[in-house]
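Quick one: co-fold with uridine-diphosphate-N-acetylglucosamine.
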Amino acid sequence: MLSVAILAAGKGTRMKSSIPKVLHKISGKTLLQRVIDSCIELNPDKIFVITGHKSKEVQESVLDNKKIHFVIQDPQLGTGHAIQVLCKEVKKNEGKLLVLNGDVPLIKPNTLKKLLNLHDSKNADISLITTKKINPYGYGRVFLKGDFIERIVEEKDCNTQERLHLLINAGVYCFNWKNLAKIIRSLQSKNKQKEVYLTDTVSLLKTSLSLELEDNGELQGINNRIQLSKCEEIIQNSIKEKHMLNGVTLINKASCSISEEAEIGRDVIIEANTHIRGSTKILSNCIIGPNTFIENSNVGVNCAISNSTVYDSQIMDHIKIGPYSHIRPKSKISSYVKIGNFVEIKNSQLDEESKVNHLSYIGDSIIGKFTNIGAGTITANFDGQKKHQTKIGKNSSIGANTVFVAPINLGESVTTGAGSVITKDSKDNSLVISRTKQVNIENWGRKKPRSN
Ligand code: UD1
Ligand code: MG
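Sure, here it is.
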């Protein structure tokens, strides 16, 4: 039987934040959810998440899973105290208990499996992951005696000599739960921080084993924003390397970010300052960026999107967007469409080969095939209370500066006069024009300014 306990009750004082530490995010996912996801693959019987500081917020952040049980630790008197509370709350302390710090988010399922295998093979009381850090500052230093761990000394309790010791505790433990439960109450808080340390269990249990691993970034703990950004960099580097090996060019790697879920096809070029977020999928031969943000959207083949923002939309094939356009949620842009400078599209469908090239707002609209929307065209879709639809049929030619006061339904092959304010529907093949006629008054002559 395997149970997991994730320690997530602490405040995270060193983050200097009103958000609980485990709810800070790296590459879009909270530290806590990352730790949960890493242990789900082990198929544990139960996962106990120990919460305390802002416990409601922390509990609500966790994605639903039947195996997860929350245990409240209040007050929070240290990592050892968290496990004391757990042992008391759960009546049957049996099997293996894998304890994971909620602030060590990059741990991989395979590494956890290695720890469990070592633990089983040696029938240990406690096995924990250690690594040598060039800069061990902030971590508990692990001292061995022969094959066993003798003691762990926390940063604040180290003397000068101990502080130089490089082998550290990664915050990932496997316990024989029954044996742990026997000694857990004996933990004390006689240390500089006056906390009950879980690490003190190594001296109370008989067989304490260390699984020493290379420091490959996976064991990075997060106590402050510098370490948060270090983890972000570690994840981003591995995501970007994966895409580059799959045939994606990153022009200025450091200035871009890509979500873990994103899929990017071959021969896509990602220019500088470009951010691909959420479940975005980009097919082959596109040029994305520079300065572009795409979230939860699909982009087809051969598209070029520059200096623009795209949210929750479908961009088909051979489309040019930008510079400086904003495609807002629920837009469907069909193949060979061109969206030019300073154009905002929202909840609209643009059919094949239509064009909106300059300075327009198209909201809640359907624009037919081959239709050209002139510069400065606006769909006035909001009457102060409700949004209304604008429908412009195929092959239409919309004059510059046309305003459509929705709801409007223009037919096909309709032309609107530049500067028109359209308030009525029209039939196919019409010329629709609504503006005051130009009057030229000849010999009008400006009066000369009066001189004193
Ligand atoms: C801890 C270890 C240290 C190790 C390091 C690895 C102890 C005493 N020290 O130090 O040896 O090198 O992690 O990253 O365990 N938490 C609770 N309840 C509490 C206190 C903390 O649930 O009462 C949770 C925190 O939310 C956090 C985790 O336990 O997720 C670790 O706590 P933290 O204060 O960050 O410990 P470290 O100082 O990093
Ligand atoms: Mg920590």
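If it helps, The chain is about 15% helix and 30% strand.
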